[in-house]
Amino acid sequence: MSLRTLIPCLFCFLSAAVGSGLAQSQAQLECEQAAAQAYEACLKNGIPCIPGEPNCGAHKGSPAQCLPAYNASYQRCQPSFNWSGFVPGANAAWPSGRESAVYWNDAQGNFWLFGGFGLSAPAGTFGGAAAPINDLWKYTPTGSPGTVGTWKQLGGSDQPPVANSSTMPGGRAGAAFAVDAKGNVWIFGGVGYGPNTYGALNDLWEYTPGAGAGTWKLVWSSGPSVVNQSGNYGTTGAASSANAPGGRWNSVCWFDANGNFFLFGGFAIGSLGGAAWFLNDLWEFSPGSGMWTWLGGQTAAGKGGTVTTPGMPGGRAGASYWSDGKGNVWILGGEGFDSTGSLGALNDLWSYNSGNGQWSMVSGSATVAGATGNYGQQGTPSANNAPPGRSQATAWKDSQGNLWLFGGTNADTWIVDSPPPLLQNLFDDTWVYSPASGTWDWVGGPQGTNSTTAPGARAGAAAWPEYFPIVWLMGGYGVDSPAQYPVYLYDLWSGNGTVY
Fold first, then answer.
1. In degrees, to the nearest 5, what angle opens at C-alpha 386 toward C-alphas 382 and 389?
2. Which of 142, 151, 245, 334 has the most CB atoms in a 10 Å sphere around its CB?
3. In this predicted model, what pLDDT tens digit does every residue of 384-401 receive, in sequence order?
């Protein structure tokens, strides 16, 4: 079959693909059809040329002349996601290597980074002992998408131990964080330093950006000591000044449409005290009253979940999460308990509606054994696709409402302790989930673990979406190339591609 007869057949295939439900978006189909039409026009009319150019005129083209342009146009239609890396200059201000930090965007397009489990500068990525830090950084983009901007430290320290003060939270990692309608960031708990000791924290802070370093406010705490406190649950659905979530880290939080703060699960201390373990308790905090309400879930650690709607996810920590600011949240995986009570890396995706208080499982497996994932064909969304089970993956939401996921780990020891010194099953893949279509799309990175393909396998990295679909990724605990051993990273990456 000639190339000229192949192109009309391509239209037949594309139409059949859409009609039969193959996961090719309308936008991608139109892009490929336009490329095919341009190829047909080239064969019929010749390669366009500038008027006045010698021998310029209508003449038929040949496949050899027209095919390169078609191939280039067709390739641009294919979903892809690529990364470009940056490292600091010799005299540039730059955050030290870290993982499990707090990160967010402001309305002016700046990126923010706070604390995490990191290394003291200038140790960077190599060697040295890591500990929770509380340095606050602001990143100002250049205004040209995908080009590196400048970092400025606004407060705090990367020299642990850094205790809580009346004006700033102490060093911590794995704190839950969410941005309110005013653009202020709220952080809850984490593992780190209270006023005097180290452990699981349960204090709630609000940061307001402003002139200079901005201001921190301690919104709520359970008392003078905020370390290793037990949960006090009270009565389900009833607010009380005596209620208090126990100390925890790697939990999930978000705001509803009324400005109330929600908290779910994590590696936490329940009502019985003692050591932290995996919880699935759900809390609501009212900034107006300053009181907590326990909404549901287990008060003692170690309980599995159920997949029946409205149901509830099992106890877990290190889950990835996304919120739309209207009270809806999506939670993916983490390390925790499945529907049978088995413990391991999960890949179930749940949505929660703060308006009606209902959970729904929308994707993935209900069991650890079934959380092997399915990559499908790269760049092709499908309801059958799902990322393999993982915790500590990096999550962000783009301006189109899609949910993005990068990296993470399926190592069982990650949540319980600080990152282990040996390489622990780190992912390097990029996924996007469309709530509108209910499909996952594997858009980049290799399958499997511990890859050095850019940007390199890692967990606990920070991310900031810029102009769709550009995103910035920084740090985490991951593979250093070419040494191929795990380190605390401080590299900055820009991700970009064609995504439908």
1. 180
2. 334
3. 999 999 999 999 998 888
